[in-house]
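Q: Okay, next protein. This is Acyl-CoA dehydrogenase family protein from Nocardioides islandensis. I've checked the sequence twice, so it should be correct. Can you predict the 3D structure?
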Amino acid sequence: MTFELSREHEEFRRSVREFAEAEIAPHAAKWDKDHHFPADVVQKMGGLGLMGLTAPEEYGGAGEDGDFTSLCVAIEEIGRVDQSMGITLEAAVGLGINPILTFGSQEQKDQWLPDLVSGRTLAGFGLTEPGAGSDAGATRTKAVLDGGEWVVDGAKAFITNSGSDITSLVTVTARTGEREDGRPEISAIVVPSGTDGFTVEPAYDKLGWHASDTHGLSFTDCRVPEGNLLGDRGRGYAQFLATLDDGRVAIAALAVGCIQACLDLSLAYAGERQTMGGPIGRKQGVAFQIADLQVMAETSRLLTYKAAAMKDAMSNGRADAKAFKQAASIAKLHATESAVTATRIATQVFGGYGFMEEYPVVRFYRDAKVLEIGEGTSEVQRMLIARGLGLPVE
């Protein structure tokens, strides 16, 4: 039994790290300060093949040369220098490409995937609403068929990659009817950017992820062709839950990048900062905290890549879906909560300088909190893990 990545994955890691340190790291602080979304760099990530790691060759993807583990490696390495660009990549693939790749018709795939896989364009996925997140049954957005068109009315909140200059579409969940038991019928519908009645609200003023593109969306008598239904009618929520399992592992990988950044920054600072005649790293109070960061990085990485390997094995029919769902929740819960703790520790190691915006630990501190919220809160993960153990948790 081995817990090491393959030689090919490690070589891929080195290439992504070189890209991240050359194209992203020198600019991340300014993008964060200016709340700037660098579309040109996102397209360079696409040019490097990062958007196509889980896509077939026929759409410009990596095909057999790529896998979900490679995507997690890329997200970790990008997130190690900038969490905003890490979540941009994660959402571009997990929430933009994968729903169309997994549930789309051949026509939808042919229309949208080549540009999305190449990174020329981005797509978002609109599930969350002002009053409905984990409780998708509370969805208020509606879509009604009228003369061969879906008429969409409603609003979405906190949608990543939804309003950039290169966003081409957003897939939205909407009520399309009612089931026999009275529950809402939820379907997924593709809404192209620029469609009449589709309004992208101003970008949010967020605590972190300042260089990530995040907007509220509104739909007023927004009409799209009936053929824009993604997958089967009434299966929109189930489709999103399947998408979310993958996303939880990808968010865990983003958290691993955050923890590794905290470890790297703290280790370097502890060797440079002098006090009382020597570096602060010789003090047990500092050294022990950095040792804890190493433990967090190792355990979070192992859980994340175990889940990623299970996803790849499941794609080949060699792993159980239920076991993967449990592993995904465990990885997401542990890695994201560890990331929040890691940023607090790193800030403490830096002392007063850790409170100054000129040091990157501040940015990681602000960016980390949302990791415990997005793609299923820590509370939701605990609920899912408990259910996986057979507990009747409501």
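A: Here is a summary of the prediction. The chain has three domains: 7-122, 124-232, 237-388. The longest strand covers residues 149-160.
Q: Noted. On to the next one.
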